[in-house]
Write the structure tokens for this entry.
Amino acid sequence: MPNTTSSGAGLTVPPLRKEDEWPHDPEGESAAPWKDTWFFSLADLDQEVYLGTHLTVSPNRENGDRAAVLVVDGRREILDIARRPARIDRQGVGIAASSLEIVEPTWDESKRLVLRADLPEVSFEVELTGRFAAADIEPLFPGFLPPDETTGRTLRHLEHMIRFEGTLRWEDGRRRDVTGFGFRDRSWGWRHSARMFAGGWDSIFGEVPDATFGIWCQRLPDPYCAARLAIAWLADTGGVTHCTAATFDRDVTGRPGAASVTSSRGRTVAVHVTKGHASTHLPWHDADPDPPRWTVGSVEHFVAVADDSGRPGRAVANHAVPFQQDAMFGSSLHPGTNDRQEAGE
């Protein structure tokens, strides 16, 4: 499979670098905090097991290293957030009881990672493999991601569909072998929650037997982006291409119903949901430390899909909404009137 991607119009995007799986040195003197992040959203749909992990290394922010781990097994849900200095070595990165071992850092089907978590109630170890090639958002869609106002440098996002298998162990001795699909985001660069994706976003990432795809829609135009609103890509044996047309239908809660993408090479993949599965919540970034303390809350919706030929597939949709962590900021209490002072009134 080619190790390059095409954005159409004769523009070839440089191959992804293996070293980009590891943390980066902060670039420039930006006031916005630097972050390296590794985000994984995994699902074993048959067993209704869902695993989410978000690792953050932020060397120029106080207490900036953070690990969020989510385990959902049927009706049982465990969420753990740890803020500890990151461990970075030749094997990978770890924060508290969660770690990522980087076995083979390519950005195609050769990728091999091992994701682990060891919490008081539950632990897991899963091996991750790539599905076709990853999409490198900035060179594939120049101007879509907001640059840092101070340095002009761009936040980087690599999006990759993955598969996994491994073991989930509970404190009571129950063990479950898990296998399934997932989506991962690898990003690095400046991060400032109040200045990123001000309207929230909706996205869907899916796979059919011979392709993967992604659609990312900013719900409102972001004043910090030169481009507006939406991007889409398709990955198959020919590499990754940007899309010239796409549709994404979902209900008012963000649950997906149907999606389609048409690549710049003319291939169309259209899917519709055949079965809805769980919706999970994983906190990504902390709110900014200063008022008004904006951050983003997101819900992941996992679904089974089929394409127009009836071939089965799977997808995960993300519905993200910005909110103020301090709901009272800028508000005052209504003074109230006509209080009842005596019992019996």
Remarks:
- The mean pLDDT is 88.
- The CA atoms of residues 250 and 256 lie 4 Å apart.
- The chain has one domain: 34-324.
